Every structure is written in structure tokens, then in C-alpha cells.
TrEMBL record:
It comes from Psychroflexus salinarum. PROSITE patterns: PDZ. This is S41 family peptidase. Residues 80-163 form the PDZ domain. InterPro entries: ClpP/crotonase-like_dom_sf, CtpA/B_N, PDZ, PDZ_sf, Peptidase_S41A, Tail-specific_protease. Keywords: Coiled coil, Hydrolase, Protease, Serine protease. Belongs to the peptidase S41A family. Residues 462-489 form a coiled coil. Gene3D superfamilies: 2-enoyl-CoA Hydratase, Chain A, domain 1 (3.90.226.10), 2.30.42.10, 3.30.750.44. CDD domains: cpPDZ_CPP-like, Peptidase_S41_CPP. It holds the Pfam family CtpB_N-like.
Amino acid sequence: MKKVKLLVLTIIVALTSFGFTTYKNDFFEIAKQIEIFTNLYKEINMNYVDEVNPAELMNTAIEAMINDLDPYTVYWDEQQIQNARIRNSGSYTGIGAQITSNPESIVIKNLIKNSPADKAGLKIGDKIIQIGDIQVKDYNEDAGELLKGAPDTEVNLKLRRNNSEENITLKRGVIKEKAVPYSKIMEGNIGYIVLSQFTRTASSEVIETFQKLKKEGATQIILDLRNNPGGLLSEAVNVSNIFIEKGTLITFTKSAIEKYNRSYTTQNKAIDTEIPVAVLINENSASASEIVSGSIQDLDRGIVIGSRSYGKGLVQRPKKLNYGTQAKITISRYFTPSGRCIQALDYLDGESIRKEESEYTEFKTKNGRSVYDGGGIKPDLEVDVEKESKLIKALIEENLIFDFSVNYVNQHKELSTENFKLNQTLIDDFKKFITKKGFKFKSETDKKIKELKAIASSEDYLSSIQTSLNDLQKQLDKEKEKAFENETETLQKLITEHVLRKLGYDAAVYNYYTEEGEVIKQAIAILNNESDYRDILGYE
């Protein structure tokens, strides 16, 4: 004990002499808690009545500690570190499919055209129930890892499709996902670029595509960042740099630790600082997407259209630990050039708390327009069809829109990307589908009524107010039915996307956007009206 105290004292003195007292004034408290934890961990392992697994016990402790923080501070083992590197590179060995896992199977949610999965005959909606000799339902780990392997190695799969089973053999390969999966020159010389992720090649792909579209005659640009979850900060700055002159602040970070405070400016000569730009975002546009859209908006370089972005403005930095493991720790927050914090959520005991609009702070763009913090990036022009209500999010979370769309295509063999047209009958069929599946949307009001019933029952008031509570529930159910009707346009959009993706990959969805998408229609209308475009940006 004396040696421990002497060591702690020595470290405190050393930190103080280097000016770090403000960095960790609570160092002794940290040492004290580590000592307590170490002793407890030892005593449990030595004396607990049942046999315990030391590694599992420690993992539980680590996870519990991290769960008390924000969801982006995580602990990674060696495999997870490798997966993160692969995601950022945009190149990996696998089958070329987006998957989700459930206890019974692995579901194919999306396919890359001409990928190993596509060439082997896998379809969106297929459920893989066996990989090699291993039944997915009997595998306790992440069954998706079994699909990975060296290039050109084969794996046998048993899958269930439309209530029938079949076996296929798939040869793995090197998958290179494009950061720009689609581009097009549209009527009126408007160039359209989809940027799906901020990998290491994001800015170079956008530059190459942009220059190609300009050669084809593009005089205006739409940059689609919808559903882009983000990626590398450096690539966000480089993408903004395409339209913004060298030496311009794009984002900066603030931290409790001064050395993590940084400013990020454009480093290269811009490709084009004059071409009119419209950036599209939605609730799934996060992180790097918000840095690009936020800088474009704050600097009045272009208009932002869609729905309010996700609001992920926390910066993580990997910290190496022992035995090849790593912690990704939130160290600071992102801010846009005007000083807005992108972060929409605070965290208390691991639970997210969304800020109220009354708590937002006003900031000014380069031209003096009012913008606000605390809620991601609010578009200059909001489009209702892009907004996802709690009802829509519940339907997405339970995969009901996806499952309905897959079933619909499987049951209509005559369908193609050319002849598919969504109508009210399809929405009616969807309502029947979710009713048959037993879907019941539970609003916050539903939860409160249930809580009130429980409290009333415990206090012997339930019998006297039961009728009133039942009437309240009936009225709420009517309001929820109206809410469903109000979401018809958004449902039509989402079902159309899923159906077209199954019929013709992502390209069919992007093509639908350019021909029928409400957001792009509004972007085109603004870009084609110079007066409205300049008015939105605050130019005289």
C-alpha cells in the first residue's frame, strides 16, 4: 500500500511540474477507483461460488462503463479494428451484399451489381439459413463473419427465397465500393452527383465526376448526400474544397482538452467557386455529410434542400490499448464555420436527450442569414416527403416496408423498372400487410396511458376512471389512423425505393430520383430560378 501511495504521489508531482494539473486534477481519484476495482475483480475470480470467466467478466465491466457515455465511444477488439479500416478504405474481401442478421437467418438487404453475391444469383430479400456446415440459428457469434474469407475461396450457402429453399455456391472476391455510385447530366444542364460515403477516395471521385459533367455541359450541380452516414473528416473538407476557395474554414472542433481543439481549412485551389450548387440531405445524413452541407450553407456557397440532418457532431479518436485492442473515444465536438455545433443530442447516463428548439442559439451565415445550432443542419428549403415521423421509423425498424416490397416483387414476376407504377391500391395492400403482421404503433401517449393505468390500479382508482381511459385510448387510435394517412406520400416514396432497388439495384432508385423525386424537382426549380436562388442565399 505504501508503494502504491508513493507511486501515485510521484505521478501527481510529475504531472503538476509539466503543467497538467488542470488536465487531471482527479488523478488520485482515478488511481483509487482502479485499485478498488482491481481488488474486487480479483476477489470475485478467486471466491465466487460458481466458476466465472475472467475475460467475459472484464468485457461486461468495460461495456457497462462505456454504455454510460455516448454511443460513439466504443471498445474494439482486433477484428472490429480491421472492419473499421475496411469501411474507410472502401475496398474489402467479401460477397458484395448489405446484410442484417436475426436469430434464424442472414437477410440480404442490398446487392452491389456484378458482385460475387450478384453473380452467384443471390437476390434482395433472400434469407441465408446455412453457411457451409453451420446453421445460422445454431451459431452464437456474428454469422455474417462466416461469409468473409480470402479472395477466390468458395462458400456453400443454403437460402430461403419466397418460401422455398435452394443451395448455391459463391466465390468470394475483392469488393470495391464506389463513393460516387451514380451521376447524370439532367435536362437544363444540371449535373447530379450521388456521394454515398466519405471513404478515402470520396473527394477524388467527386472531382472526377464533377469535371466529367462540366465537360458534358453541366452549368449547375446537385450533390446528393441523403442517407450518407459520413466517414473521414479529411474527405469532408476536400469535398467542400471543390466549391470553396483555398484557405477557408470548413469546420473546427472544441474539447475540454486544449490539444484536441483544431481548425480545418481548405488546402487546395477550388475546382469551381461560381457554379450554382444544391446539396440534398435527410435525417440519415450524418457527420461528414453535415460538415459539407453545414459549410456550404454557412458560407452561402449553395442551397441545402431536404429534411433536417441527423445531428452527429461528436469527434472520436482511436486510442491503442493492450493486446491489439483499441478504444474509440469521443474527444470533442464539430462546429460549422458560423460557430454552430452540429450535435443534436446530449447524453445522460448513456441515454440520448434531444435539445428543445427553445434552447437553440442563433448564428449568422457569411451573408447574414440566421441559422441555428442544436439540431443537425436545417435545410434552407424543407421537403416533407423526406421527413421520417416516429410512425415511419417504427415501420422501418421492424423491416415492414422492406418485407412488403420484397413480397410484392416476388408475387409479381411481370414487374420491371420500366412498368412499375405505385398507386393507392398498393398502399391499401401495405396497410393490410402490416395489420396481418400484428403491427401496432406505440406512441409516447400510448405509453403514458399504460403507465397511468398501472398507477391508477396500484392506488385503487382504476375502476372509477377506466371508462375515461378507454375513451381516451379510442380517440388516440383515431388520431394515429389520421397520422398514417398523412404519411401516405412518404410511404409511397419508401416502397417505390425498395421495389426499384430489388428490380434494378441502386441505379434504378437514383434514376427514379432524377425523374420523379420531389426533392430533386424542387432543387431543379430553385437552380433554374436565379432570382430565387440568390434570395435564399441572401445576395442583394
